[in-house]
Write a structure and sequence with these properties.
The chain has 98 residues and is α+β, with helices and mostly antiparallel strands. It is built from 3 helices and 5 strands, in the order H-E-E-H-E-E-E-H.
């Protein structure tokens, strides 16, 4: 599974929300969503995006830089992410799953 899809599922599965910044500085297409399809569609509508994961209490849990390129390895879709307990936990879960 592509890393960005696993990350979104992981965050939503824990009850968190995801926002997507597609580089259009005027407006983010998805803000604090729990809709998997809406989030994935926004990420896949561009080649490069940032996602922001937020807990139900408003706590910022982490960010990830997503790059979608032809023929990339699954784990390469999350090119960089913030070093936080949540993101470290996701990374461990992703490595176990793959």
């Amino acid at each position: 599974m592509k890393a960005y899809k696993h990350l979104v599922k992981y965050a939503l599965g824990l009850g968190h929300t995801v926002s997507v910044d597609d580089g259009d500085y005027d407006d983010m297409p998805v803000v604090n969503s729990q809709g998997y399809k809406e989030i994935i569609d926004a990420i896949e509508s561009v080649d490069i995006s940032n996602i922001y994961i937020t807990a139900a209490n408003g706590e910022k849990l982490g960010t990830a830089f997503i790059v979608l390129e032809f023929n990339q390895e699954d784990e390469e879709s999350v090119c960089d992410y913030s070093v936080t307990p949540f993101m470290d936990s996701w990374d461990r879960e992703y490595m176990i799953a793959n």
